[in-house]
Specification:
By secondary structure, the protein is α+β, with helices and mostly antiparallel strands. Helices cover 51% and strands 8% of the residues. The chain starts with a helix and ends in a 24-residue tail after the last helix. The model has no long low-confidence stretch (mean pLDDT 96).
Length: 264
């Protein structure tokens, strides 16, 4: 399963930028809701483990999910995640690395179409792996930004682009809006220079530009105003101003200028 390799490479890219960080850096707040690097790694570790349990121990996954949803309902989700994983700093980094490396090796051998339980509807393990890559890449962005590092992007970003395309309707549905009959036409340039296209030319409009910037918008790591994407048409404009490729209640994108790579 190619997605398992892409997940591994995404994790390793993030681990590399953390390799030489002093312990004090793990307590620094990012531009994402004030989460620290420790908070990000706890979140990634918790949901990687949950995804793995959905394959290896579905009953335990269901039991823990019930507890998690209770924490979500009373607003204590962050405290719940942090309570489940007490490790911090380099110990947490090692724990996260150990699991994702083990997962990637085992998941690469799974039938990509195997269905597993999740917090929402069941999904294939291929989709589950793509979701784990997306979360790693998206939450990795706030760490790269905080550390002033520039991530070397590769064409594995295409998995996240496809996730963004596939959740076009979700952006509207989660907000209680009518889902447009047609998706805008996309022409996006991958890091390799190849161009990917999605949808057909129509009144829904078009989106043209960088595949990485499109992924940043649908994962809400950048506001559309902070990209060079060319957006034309009312449907395309509404989508890009509200895009959300992840599950959960509707989330507002970051305000213009609030997410950036810090320097100095």
């Amino acid at each position: 399963m190619e997605q398992a390799r892409d997940f591994l490479e995404e994790c390793e890219a993030l681990a590399a930028v953390l390799a030489d960080c002093p312990d004090s850096d793990f307590q620094k707040a990012t531009q994402f809701k004030g989460w620290t690097i420790n908070d990000v790694l706890v979140h990634l570790q918790y949901w990687n483990r949950a995804a793995d349990l959905s394959v290896t121990d579905p009953d335990t996954f269901s039991a823990e999910l019930a507890q998690l949803m209770g924490a979500f309902a009373d607003g204590s989700l962050r405290a719940y995640e942090n309570g489940m994983i007490p490790e911090r700093g380099r110990e947490l980094l090692f724990l996260w690395q150990t699991l994702y490396r083990d997962m990637a090796g085992r998941w690469a051998k799974l039938d990509p179409k195997l269905r597993v339980k999740w917090a929402g509807p069941e999904m294939s393990v291929r989709s589950s792996m793509t979701a784990r890559q997306m979360e790693t890449w998206a939450h990795g962005q706030e760490i790269f930004d905080l550390l002033g590092a520039e991530r070397k992007e590769t064409d594995r970003i295409r998995n996240i682009v496809i996730l963004g395309v596939n959740t076009f309707g979700w952006t509207f549905k989660v907000r209680g809006w009518d889902i447009p009959e047609q998706m805008p036409h996309l022409s996006l340039v991958l890091p390799s220079g190849k161009t990917d296209t999605f949808g057909e030319p129509s009144d829904a409009g078009s989106i043209t530009g960088s595949a990485v910037e499109f992924a940043q918008v649908v994962t809400q790591t950048r506001n559309i105003a902070d990209t060079d994407l060319l957006v034309d048409g009312p449907v395309a404009t509404k989508w890009m101003h509200n895009a959300q490729c992840f599950a959960g209640p509707p989330e507002e994108p970051p305000t213009p200028g609030s997410r950036f790579r810090q320097t100095g």
